[in-house]
Amino acid sequence: MLNSMKKLVVALAAVSACTAAGMAHAQDVKTRIIRFGYGLNDESVQGRAARYLAEELGKLSGGKLKMRTFGSANLGSDEQMQAALVGGSQEMMVGSTAPLATMVKEFGVYDLPFLFNNEKEADAVLDGPFGEKLLKMLDAKGLVGLVYWENGFRDVTNSKRPIAKAEDMEGIKLRVMQNQIALGVFGALGANAVPMPFSELFTALETRTVDGQENPVSTIQSSKFYEVQPYLSLTHHVYTPWVVLASKKWWDTLSPDEQKLIREAAVKSREFERKDSRADSQKSMQMLEKSGMKINKVSDEELKRLRAKAQPVVDKYTQELGPDLVKQLQDEINKVRQG
Ligand code: TK8
């Protein structure tokens, strides 16, 4: 009896030893260097989240998946990095959805103004079936869309005047992100819209090549636009996200274990980034108030008028994007609104 108990214990110990060895073996993770590029500087929300992602990935992989982060568009603008990922000469990046729309037109949906009322709605739609569906569409174009990070609600800065009334946008030479919808929307609002990569924006503002731009306050602060832009108008006209991307060419060479670890780290980075973004946006507002910028709110009435001005192009692009797609998005938003 005692003997058979002993045998059982020995047998159990052997089984568990085997499983442990088996698991260690099954973790097929090689030592790899992953170049991760982004457009904002190291002190930005993007910079902090990129470093967090690199650290998490290091921890999860026992130091094998080594992510090197490159900010300030040092690996290129969003547009250039996208192309490098497709070609396989760069592994990963984070960038705006707007330039993705030139590859997968559906991403242009995020440039339709006044869609989301708050971050809660954006989170639910982006992390839900709608956001996922768009990320999946990138596969066929040579990109793997991992998670959405928050860029945020965008406000307008310029060197001409406060945008307090809808008419104040008239004739402002405004840099916009590079796709048809952004161009069309700001054109309809009366601005002289100029598409340009973000990496060229500070110089363009400083040299007065353009009068203004629109971005969330955290970017206006971290990119020091307050040094060259006297007016900040809180239009909150659109919420735009960022997407963490991998090169599909490269991704397909990874083992399932490696892919799983990267996905896991990316999801963790999303939670970190959004929390940081929201805290940073409040801090940035306070800093901008002290910077000497003239900051104005825009009344609900004038926002309604801006919205009405944009409506014809919103209708036009809804047709182009596909009315079903836009309806799906609206339905997802309504679900959140109805709680
Ligand atoms: C940074 C950009 C930026 C975006 C823009 O590379 O282009 O205005 O808001 O965050 O992706």
From TrEMBL:
<feature type="signal peptide">
    <location>
        <begin position="1"/>
        <end position="26"/>
    </location>
</feature>
<protein>
    <submittedName>
        <fullName>ABC transporter substrate-binding protein</fullName>
    </submittedName>
</protein>
<dbReference type="GO" id="GO:0030246">
    <property type="term" value="F:carbohydrate binding"/>
</dbReference>
<dbReference type="GO" id="GO:0055085">
    <property type="term" value="P:transmembrane transport"/>
</dbReference>
<dbReference type="InterPro" id="IPR018389">
    <property type="entry name" value="DctP_fam"/>
</dbReference>
<dbReference type="InterPro" id="IPR038404">
    <property type="entry name" value="TRAP_DctP_sf"/>
</dbReference>
<keyword id="KW-0732">Signal</keyword>
<feature type="region of interest" description="Disordered">
    <location>
        <begin position="273"/>
        <end position="296"/>
    </location>
</feature>
<dbReference type="InterPro" id="IPR004682">
    <property type="entry name" value="TRAP_DctP"/>
</dbReference>
<dbReference type="Pfam" id="PF03480">
    <property type="entry name" value="DctP"/>
</dbReference>
<dbReference type="GO" id="GO:0030288">
    <property type="term" value="C:outer membrane-bounded periplasmic space"/>
</dbReference>
